[in-house]
Design brief:
With about 240 residues, the chain is of the alpha+beta class. The chain is built from seven helices and ten strands. The chain has a five-stranded antiparallel sheet with strand order 1-10-9-6-7. The N and C termini lie close together (about 5 Å).
């Protein structure tokens, strides 16, 4: 397993948070990534609260994959308890993507536009579904994926952890030996095409080196956001 989070060269603060969680209630591990919402106060606090609460909820669960919705609820509750609006009516909020890997399966939950990818056989496939305005336009056939990447509303999420009721999307993926599961914020995927992600994470060598190179590549490609990634390689001593 490996995790890297970088403030980047543009933002004054790193408002991402990423964590690796060793499970104690069942075999396996969990990955958690959050992106504090830009333009909101205390984005870093929201991301930290969400990752901490989600990780705590999964760590001791007897069935951690089944506990993913409860972990999202715990993260949302933790954010909501601190969500005091400022003078413009804005309050802290964050995206969240998390995964439990156990018994040859990856179980994923997401709220917002932080993503999960499966890298297998030289191809990176997006597992999660973005909760964003541009993603809805792409699914409706109004925008192409290329247009969405350049659209001025591309950072507008339609679901987030704000302390209000929210439902995560849930996914399951069978993991094969050598597969890499990647969770990342939009500072990474907004700057790198799927094939570049696959090329970088499909290489030989320790996973922490590959993930570091992936984050560096996003920054070199011109990312203007914080960049964070957490990854696990299945059934491999480097993971």
């Amino acid at each position: 397993m490996a995790v890297v989070s970088d403030r980047g060269g543009v933002r004054a603060e790193n408002q991402d948070a990423a964590a690796l969680v060793e499970l104690t209630g069942a075999p396996g591990c969990a990955l958690v990534v959050a992106d504090g919402m830009g333009g909101h106060p205390d984005g870093r606090l929201a991301a930290d609260l969400a990752t901490g609460a989600a990780g705590d909820a999964l760590r001791d669960a007897a069935e951690p994959a089944a506990a993913l919705p409860a972990a999202v609820s715990a993260a949302n509750r933790a954010v909501g308890e601190r969500a005091t609006p400022d003078e413009r009516g804005r309050s802290l909020g964050t995206t969240l993507v998390l995964a439990v890997v156990s018994g040859g399966w990856a179980s994923v939950a997401n709220v917002g536009d932080s993503r999960a990818y499966l890298v297998r056989g030289g191809t990176a496939t997006q597992v999660s579904v973005d909760h964003s305005w541009v993603a809805e336009q792409v699914r409706a056939g109004i925008l192409t994926e290329e247009e969405a990447l350049r659209h001025p509303r591309r950072s507008r999420v339609t679901r987030a952890l704000l302390g209000e009721p929210v439902e995560p999307d849930l996914f399951e993926v069978a993991m094969r030996q050598g597969d890499v599961l990647l969770l990342c914020t939009d500072g990474l995927w907004d700057s790198l095409p799927h094939q570049r992600i696959a090329d970088l994470l499909g290489g030989d060598g320790p996973l922490d080196v590959l993930v570091g190179a992936l984050v560096d590549a996003a920054l070199d490609a011109g990312s203007t956001d914080n960049v964070s990634a957490a990854a696990l390689r299945a059934l491999d001593g480097d993971s």
